[in-house]
Amino acid sequence: MKAFIDKVELIAGLLLGAIALLTFTAVMLRWLFNYGLPDAFDFSRLLLGTAMFWGIALAGFHNRHIQVDGFWELAPAWGRRLIDIFATSVTLAFMALFAWMLEGKVTSVFLSNEQTFDLRLPVWPFHAVAALGIALASLLLLLRLVRLLTGKKEA
After folding, report:
1. How far, in Å, CA of 120 to CA of 130, rounded?
2. Is residue 155 over pLDDT 70?
3. Distance of alpha carbon 107 from the chain centroid
């Protein structure tokens, strides 16, 4: 399982690296040669959305998302576990719904033949990889819930 999580983290990191490289290249080309990189804006925004969704998957699994835990801090150990189980269950339900809705969005984008502005490349693959990130979030939250229910330590 650790190898799978490491691969998801690697992909999320590579997506962020691609955004940084694309932005740097576009700025340098514009500054040095007064040349705009075709579709740099489209690719950067599509990659950013994808990186965010893959990051959501990791944040949910590692329990590193934004949370208010004042009540959790005051609870005894068994209460903390119940709060974690409830919170993970609710988050899992919403992520699963989000993944299902994104599948419809990918289909819609594919059927509408949306394309980038300059190069006229299809954008549905970006939407599909982003939707895969949310599907992974659902899967990883399910794994976290199983670990909480069985009493295994945090990953």
Report:
1. 20
2. no
3. 19
Structure confidence by residue, pLDDT tens digits, 48-70 = 999 999 999 988 888 887 777 88
- Phi and psi torsions of 115, nearest 5°: -135, 165
Do the beta carbons of residue 49 and residue 130 sit within 8 Å? yes
Look at residue 117 and give its three-state secondary structure: coil
State how far the Cα of 69 lies from the Cα of 80, in Å rounded to an integer. 10
Residue 108: both structure tokens together: 């819609």
Q: Which residue has the tokens 């339900």?
A: 93
**Residues 27-50 pLDDT 10s:** 999 999 999 999 999 999 999 999
CA distance 140 to 82: 19
Among 71, 99, 96, which Cα is nearest to 84's?
Answer: 71
Give per-residue pLDDT as tens, 114-146.
Answer: 999 999 999 999 999 999 999 999 999 999 999
